[in-house]
Every structure is written in structure tokens, then in C-alpha cells.
Write a structure and sequence with these properties.
alpha+beta; 7-stranded antiparallel β-sheet; 7 helices; about 35% helix
């Protein structure tokens, strides 16, 4: 290599690096060819006749750098798109908790700012894991209805009832196998989106047909069923599925509210009932939202309740309250688990309001938020305008005697209007204890 070659290469490299680093800003560098054996330092300070050629080379290098930057940006976009697609694929095979962020405190007046409504009612756009959970809940509900038919059916005399129930039970078992197979396919990544859609459509079609056959059987028994032997089922968190009590609460200086309830929703079972009056949406509300404990709200004042019910089993709940000193008591399955005072003391429950089951009201009769909706089953919702004694509560929870229905709100099919797809099925409270 000629003697001056290393120096010329080093000078050119330094000039190129400095030009790239400074983005061709205020400083200008000019390279000049140096003859062999010449003084490098002296020659580098002189302006040669090849300045135009050197400037052209620099511009070409700059263009190359810009092209490389564009290529890098393009690759980053591609990586982001692939990452997003991978995340969507993974979300279809991993079970995730229900939607909604935990809320600080209870009641509608303390929502997180900017929280969006979420209907979750469109099964065609639900994640695969969520749809599987909904199918599982539907299968369990169909089993419960089938058990009710076995207890109440009048078809045995003809010898056809048993065979028909056996057929329905067989179909339910087959559906369970299909759901389990679908779960395994999702976990192993073997189910393509097209096959998944076809499989889901097939299962939902079979469920609809089975649901209709059981409903037809139940219609034949409805005339012989007492008006209070039914339950309401809210299978999904939506902002449109609820039941409305046809009459308002009167002015009350004391009350007792009792109900049978079943849920395995998480986080929080939602709002079993809410009562709103003009000017106060939280006049009387029972709610379990997010990771907070269940709470009772009276005139927007809050007391935390010691209930634990989201185990998928039936539980009897009762809450009593008097306006004097705001004394309250909470019973689960006939046993008092908590009590307190100063809950909205000397504030009577106001009349002329709207009583809703399954949703929390932000406005009178509306303003529902799907994240606060009740998910589960509800029955024998009764309201009294007095404080029940511990013995009366125990009798209600254990069916040890024929306890009277609520003198303000009595559980009856004729007292409710049902909206948004909430279903009404046969229910016998005391049979759940056996």
C-alpha cells in the first residue's frame, strides 16, 4: 500500500463520520486529493480542483443514509404489526378475566373518569375464551332447568317424559364434550379461525334448539306453578339486560330486603338491585364492583357488607336497616355476619322511584353501565317496611317454616317486566338446600 494511503483513508473516514453525526449542518468539510509523498497536513488545508466531485460523493452518501433510515422505519412498522397480530392470536387461547377496571369505592357516583360502556352482548365478536365461558354457563343453566323438569314434570304417566328427558340429557352431555374438545384445540393451537367459527356456530345452533325444547316443556307446567317459583338469570355483563319492578317503594323509615342469589362472576358480581328517585340515583343500592367488597348504599352513604357469594352456589342474603341512628344488619344463609350504625341516619327512603334488578342506575330508570351489571341468578326478592327479627331471617334462609312474603314488594311473576334477554326459569328455593 502506498505510504500516504492510510492517512487518506483515515481522513476520509473521519470526515464522513462527522458529516453523518452532524446531519450536514453548519460545519462544511472539503476533501482534497493529495499526491503521493506530499505533506498531508499542508495539502489537506488547500482547496483542490476536485471539490465538485467530492461534494457529489457526499450527497450520494447522504442519500444512502436517508434510504437506510426509511428502511429501518419500515421494518419497525412491520415488527409492530406482527406483534399486534401475535397478541390477538394469543388472546384467543388464553383465559382472561372479565372486562372492567376496579372501581374505587361503591356506587355510580364514583366511576373512574373516562370509563367506556361495554355491552359484551355480541357473541360473534367475543374472544374465544369468553365465548367458551358463556357456553359453559349456558350448559349449566340447561342442566338446572332439566333438573327442575324432573321434579315437576307431569309426563311420567304417559311413559314419554322419562325418555324425552334422557334424550335431552344426552344432548347436553354431547355439547359438553364438544366444548371440551374446542378448549383442547384452542390450547394446542390446532383450531383455525374458520374452523373455530364453524364449530361455534354449530354449538350455538344446537344450544338454541335444545333451549327451545326445554322451554316448550316448561310452558306446559307454567299454569300449575305457583307465581313465586321462578328465578331471573342474567348470563352476561351488558347495559341492556335487566328486570324492572312495576311498583315503586313507599316512604320507609325501616326496611328489610331478602333474596336468593347465585353467581361466580369475577371481579365482583355486579348490582343485584338498585332503587333511584328523582334527584338521587343511589337512594338504595346493593353492589359489588371490581375487587371491592359488597356494599349497601342509602342516599349515597356506604356500608361495607361481609358477604362472600361468588362461588357458584345459592346463598340467601338479607339486609335490615332503620333510620334511627342508621342501624343496619347483614345476614348470609340465615346467620348475621355484620352490623353497624350511622348509615344515612334519620333519612327516610323516598317514594316515587324506580326499582331495577340486575343493573345500577346513574339516572332515574337508566344510565346503565355494563361493568356494574349483575351476572348470575336471582330469586325471591322481597322487601318489608320493617326490620325482620333474626328468627324470621333464619326461617327464610332455611325454609324451616312458611315465612310471609314481603309486604312492600312480594316476589311474583306478575310484578316484573323483563328486558334485554334476561330469562325467567322455574325455581324452588327450598330444593336448593337438599
Amino acid at each position: 500500500m502506498p505510504a500516504g494511503a492510510p492517512c487518506r483513508l483515515l481522513l476520509a473516514s473521519v470526515l464522513l463520520l462527522r458529516a453523518c453525526a452532524q446531519g450536514f449542518g453548519q460545519t462544511r468539510f472539503v476533501c482534497t486529493s493529495v499526491p503521493l509523498g506530499a505533506d498531508m497536513c499542508a495539502s489537506s488545508l488547500q482547496s483542490g480542483g476536485s471539490a465538485e466531485d467530492l461534494q457529489s460523493t457526499v450527497l450520494q452518501l447522504r442519500e444512502t443514509v436517508l434510504q437506510q433510515k426509511e428502511t429501518i422505519v419500515h421494518h419497525k412498522e412491520t415488527i409492530r404489526e406482527l406483534t399486534a397480530k401475535l397478541g390477538r392470536c394469543e388472546s384467543q387461547s388464553v383465559l382472561e378475566p372479565g372486562p372492567g377496571e376496579p372501581k374505587a369505592g361503591g356506587g355510580a357516583s364514583r366511576k373512574q373518569p373516562g370509563s367506556a360502556k361495554n355491552t359484551m352482548g355480541d357473541l360473534s365478536r367475543a374472544p374465544a375464551a369468553e365465548t367458551l365461558s358463556q357456553l359453559g354457563q349456558t350448559l349449566q343453566s340447561l342442566k338446572t332447568r332439566l333438573e327442575n323438569l324432573e321434579q315437576l314434570s307431569r309426563l311420567n304417566a304417559s311413559g314419554q317424559g322419562s325418555s324425552l328427558r334422557d334424550l335431552l340429557q344426552s344432548k347436553i352431555d354431547d355439547l359438553e364434550k364438544q366444548v371440551l374438545a374446542r378448549v383442547h384445540s384452542l390450547e394446542e393451537g390446532k383450531l383455525s379461525p374458520r374452523n373455530e367459527s364453524e364449530e361455534r356456530s354449530k354449538i350455538e345452533s344446537t344450544l338454541s334448539a335444545l333451549h327451545q325444547r326445554i322451554s316448550d316443556l316448561e310452558k306446559g307446567q307454567k299454569d300449575n306453578r305457583p307465581v313465586d317459583r321462578f328465578q331471573l338469570t342474567f348470563p352476561l355483563r351488558t347495559n341492556y339486560m335487566y328486570a324492572k319492578v312495576r311498583r315503586s317503594l313507599p316512604e320507609m323509615y325501616a326496611f328489610s330486603v331478602a333474596m336468593w342469589i347465585k353467581s361466580n362472576a369475577s371481579p365482583g358480581v355486579g348490582t343485584p338491585f338498585s332503587y333511584a328517585v328523582p334527584g338521587q340515583a343511589n337512594e338504595l343500592v346493593l353492589i359489588e364492583w371490581g375487587n371491592n367488597p359488597m356494599e349497601i348504599l342509602i342516599n349515597d352513604k356506604v356500608a361495607k357488607l361481609p358477604f362472600s357469594i361468588n362461588d357458584g352456589k345459592w346463598h340467601h342474603l338479607c339486609i335490615t336497616w332503620t333510620t334511627r341512628d342508621g342501624v343496619w344488619e347483614a345476614y348470609q344463609d340465615g346467620t348475621q355476619g355484620g352490623h353497624g350504625e350511622n348509615l344515612a341516619p334519620y333519612h327516610p327512603i323516598k317514594p316515587q322511584g324506580v326499582l331495577v334488578l340486575g343493573q345500577e342506575q346513574d339516572t332515574l330508570g337508566g344510565g346503565f353501565d355494563a361493568t356494574q351489571a349483575f351476572v348470575g341468578e336471582l330469586a325471591h326478592f322481597n322487601v318489608w317496611d320493617r326490620k325482620l327479627s333474626p328468627g324470621e331471617v333464619y326461617s327464610l334462609a332455611t325454609c324451616s317454616s312458611k315465612a310471609p312474603a314481603g309486604n312492600v314488594i312480594a316476589w311474583a311473576e306478575t310484578s316484573l317486566d323483563i328486558y334485554g334477554g334476561a330469562t325467567k326459569w322455574t325455581f324452588e328455593a327450598c330444593r336448593q338446600l337438599n
